[in-house]
Write a structure and sequence with these properties.
The structure holds 2 protein chains of 2 kinds. By secondary structure, chain A is an alpha+beta fold. Chain A is built from 7 helices and 18 strands. Chain A is 22% helix and 33% strand. In chain A, helix 2 runs parallel beside helix 4 and helix 3 runs antiparallel to helix 4. Classes of the chains: A alpha+beta, B mainly alpha.
C-alpha cells in the first residue's frame, strides 16, 4: 500500500497564487484532475512531482517511507502532454537508457510494457519519425519502466486515436487495480476521466473548485451511471445495468484480441450523453434496430428560438434532450389531434408525461 | 624532397599538432563546466560574461597579445605566479603559446557547446530526473550523447582554429624553431626569406589539414541531424 498524499500547497507562482489543500487517496483508484486550459492542472502535477518548488511541507505522505525527496529520488514520475523523448536515440534505446540508469527497480518487464503500449513496430525507429500519438505511447512505456510507484499523466493520450485511447485507458485502469502502480491523470475530457477515475478534482485559477466521484462533476451535462458490466462475446457487446429493470448496451471493440477474450472493465462507467443524440417517441419502437430504449418521465420543457430542451428523469438520473422546434411541434400536434378525436391516449408532452428515449449505442470501446 | 626540407616541415607541423591537441583538451575542460553553469544562469551578469567569451572573435590578436604580455610580465604578480607554475616566463615559451591558443580559440569551442546545452539541458534534466536518473548519469549517459554533434563541432573548430593562429603566437611566442615556431609562423618566415618551395609545402599542409578537418565535421553532423530530422 502506498498510502495517502496530503497536499498543503500555498505558493505565489509566476502565473498567480496557488492554493490547494487536499488528501489524495492513491490506493482507492485513479485520481483525475479536470479543468480548462491554463487553470493550473499541469502546475499541480509538476508540484507533486517536485519539479516546481513551492512552500516547505507542501507534500506529506501518510507513509513516511515515501516522504518527499528530490525529483529523481521520490516515487513520482511526471509525464508531460508533449513528452520529451531523447531525440538522439531510437525508441528501444529510449526505453533501455531509462531501465539501465534509473535509480529505482523497474516493476515491469521490458517486453510486457512494449506489448501493452503496442509499440513493437516502432522499436528501431528514431523518435523524430514518430507521430504525436506514437510519442505519447513511447513516453507512457518509459514512465512504466522507470520503476516509480506513482505516475502522473498530463493529457497522456490526447494525440492517439479513439480505439488506442480506450485501450490505453483500460490499461491504466488495469494497472491501478492489479499492480502496485498508482495514477493521477489530467484531462480536459470529462468522459475520459469518468471512465477510469475514482475521484476527480476540478481546478480553476490555482484552486480546487470541486472534488468527488465523477458524477458530481457532470451536473451540467447528461450522464448515466452504468453498473455491473457483462461481456457478451457472441455479439462483442457489453450489457450494463442502469437499474434492475433497464439494460444499456455498449460496444466492446476488441480489434487486437480474439473475440472471446474478456476485456478489462470498470465496475461502473459514467456515460456522458450528448443531448442531440437522443430521440423521443410516445411508444417503444418494437420493430427497430435501436438497442438502447429506456422509459423516461418529462420533468421540464424549455423553449429557445430554434430548439426545445426536454428534461427527463430516469432511474434517478436527469438527462437533457435537445430536439428541433419542428420535431417538437410534430410531437405536440399528435397529442392535440388525439384530444380532438376524443381519444385521449395520454399522448401529451407536458411535465409528467411518460415517453421513450432512444439512445445511441454507448460509445465505450474497451479491450486489452 | 631533401631531408633538411622534411625536417624544416616536420618540426613546425609536430609543434602545431601538439599545440592544437593540448589546447583543445584544456579548452574542453574549461568549456564544459562553464557552459553547464552558464546555460542555466540567467542573472544580470550573463551578457557581460557572454561578451567576454566572444571578445577574441572581434579583437585583433595584437590587442590581446599586448595585454597578455603586460599582464604576464615577470615583474607582475600574475607573471610571477605563472613562472612559479610553468617554470619559465610567458613570453617566448611553449606554455605561453598554449595559453594564447586557449584564449584565442575559446569562443569557437564555447559557442557550439553553449548553444546546444541551452537547447537540451532543461528538458533533459527535468525528464531524466523525474524518471529517476541521478545527476551525473544524466550528464554522462544522456546529455553528452545528445550534444555530441556540438562537441564534435567544438573540437574540430577549436583544433582547426588553433592551426590557423598567427598574430597572437607571434606576439607572445616569437619565432623559435622547436619551441614556438608553428606552421603559420614558419610559413611567414619562409616567405620573408623567399624560400618559396618551403612556403608552398607549409601552405599546402595547412590548407589540406583545415579542409579535411572541416569535411569530417560536416559529414558527421549531417549524418547525426539526418537521423534526428527524418
Amino acid at each position: 500500500m502506498l498510502g495517502s498524499l496530503h497536499l498543503h500547497i500555498d505558493a505565489e507562482l509566476p502565473q498567480g497564487h496557488y492554493h490547494v489543500q487536499h488528501t489524495l487517496k492513491l490506493d482507492d483508484g485513479v485520481i483525475g484532475v479536470s479543468g480548462d486550459s491554463g487553470q493550473g492542472k499541469t502546475t499541480l502535477l509538476k508540484i507533486i512531482a517536485g519539479l516546481i518548488e513551492v512552500n516547505p511541507n507542501a507534500l506529506t505522505w501518510s507513509n513516511s517511507a515515501y516522504q518527499s525527496l528530490s525529483p529523481e529520488q521520490n516515487c513520482i514520475v511526471y509525464q508531460a502532454q508533449t513528452p520529451y523523448l531523447f531525440a538522439h536515440l531510437t525508441v528501444i534505446q529510449n526505453l533501455q537508457v531509462v531501465l539501465k540508469h534509473t535509480a529505482h527497480r523497474s516493476l515491469f518487464e521490458l517486453d510486457e510494457v512494449i506489448n501493452w503500449c503496442a509499440i513493437e513496430g516502432l522499436l528501431q525507429q528514431p523518435v523524430a519519425t514518430l507521430s504525436g500519438g506514437e510519442q505519447q505511447r513511447v513516453a507512457f512505456a518509459r514512465s512504466l519502466l522507470c520503476g516509480k510507484r506513482v505516475i502522473l499523466l498530463d493529457e497522456p493520450f490526447s494525440a492517439t486515436d479513439v480505439t488506442m485511447r480506450q485501450r490505453l485507458l483500460s490499461l491504466v485502469l488495469h494497472l491501478q487495480k492489479s499492480t502496485p502502480v498508482r495514477f493521477i491523470m489530467v484531462s480536459h475530457a470529462l468522459s475520459e476521466l469518468a471512465f477510469i477515475c475514482h475521484e476527480i478534482i476540478a481546478i480553476r485559477a490555482g484552486q480546487i473548485t470541486r472534488v468527488g466521484p465523477p458524477y458530481k462533476h457532470c451536473a451540467q451535462s447528461s450522464y448515466l451511471t452504468l453498473l455491473k458490466p457483462q461481456y457478451l462475446p457472441e455479439y462483442q457487446l457489453i450489457k450494463w445495468q442502469l437499474n434492475a429493470e433497464i439494460d444499456i448496451y455498449s460496444h466492446a471493440m476488441n480489434k487486437t484480441n480474439a473475440p472471446h477474450t474478456v476485456p478489462d472493465l470498470p465496475d461502473q462507467y459514467l456515460w456522458l450523453l450528448s443531448s442531440n443524440a437522443i430521440t423521443l417517441s410516445y411508444e417503444q419502437q418494437k420493430k427497430s434496430s435501436i438497442l438502447n430504449q429506456i422509459p423516461v418521465t418529462v420533468t421540464a420543457i424549455v423553449h429557445s428560438s430554434a430548439n426545445v430542451i426536454v428534461h427527463l428523469n430516469v432511474a434517478e438520473h436527469s438527462i437533457l434532450v435537445q430536439i428541433t422546434r419542428l420535431a417538437y411541434e410534430n410531437l405536440v400536434s399528435e397529442s392535440e389531434q388525439s384530444i380532438e378525436s376524443g381519444l385521449r391516449l395520454g399522448r401529451e408532452l407536458t411535465v409528467g408525461t411518460k415517453v421513450w428515449a432512444q439512445l445511441p449505442l454507448c460509445s465505450l470501446n474497451v479491450g486489452l | 624532397m631533401t631531408d633538411s626540407l622534411l625536417f624544416t616541415l616536420w618540426q613546425p607541423l609536430w609543434l602545431t599538432l601538439q599545440l592544437a591537441l593540448l589546447s583543445v583538451v584544456i579548452l574542453l575542460l574549461i568549456a564544459l563546466p562553464l557552459c553547464y553553469w552558464l546555460s542555466q544562469y540567467h542573472g544580470r551578469a550573463k551578457p557581460i560574461i557572454e561578451a567576454t567569451i566572444a571578445l577574441p572573435l572581434v579583437l585583433p590578436p595584437t590587442v590581446m597579445g599586448f595585454y597578455l604580455l603586460i599582464a604576464f610580465a615577470p615583474d607582475t604578480l600574475l607573471g610571477q605566479s605563472w613562472i612559479a607554475i610553468s617554470g619559465q616566463p610567458l613570453a617566448f615559451s611553449f606554455a605561453g603559446i598554449v595559453l594564447s591558443s586557449v584564449i584565442y580559440s575559446f569562443p569557437f569551442v564555447v559557442q557550439p557547446i553553449l548553444l546546444s546545452f541551452q537547447q537540451h539541458i532543461r528538458p533533459i534534466n527535468q525528464t531524466a530526473a523525474t524518471l529517476g536518473i541521478t545527476w551525473w548519469r544524466r550528464i554522462v549517459f544522456i546529455l553528452l550523447p545528445a550534444v555530441k554533434p556540438a562537441l564534435i563541432s567544438a573540437i574540430t573548430l577549436g583544433f582547426a582554429h588553433t592551426l590557423g593562429e598567427f598574430g597572437l603566437i607571434l606576439m607572445i611566442g616569437g619565432n623559435i624553431p622547436g619551441h614556438t615556431q608553428v606552421l603559420s609562423i614558419a610559413l611567414y618566415q619562409s616567405v620573408e626569406t623567399m624560400q618559396y618551395t618551403q612556403a608552398h609545402w607549409l601552405a599546402a599542409i595547412l590548407l589540406g589539414f583545415s579542409f579535411i578537418i572541416l569535411v569530417i565535421m560536416y559529414t558527421y553532423n549531417r549524418a547525426f541531424y539526418r537521423m534526428q530530422q527524418c
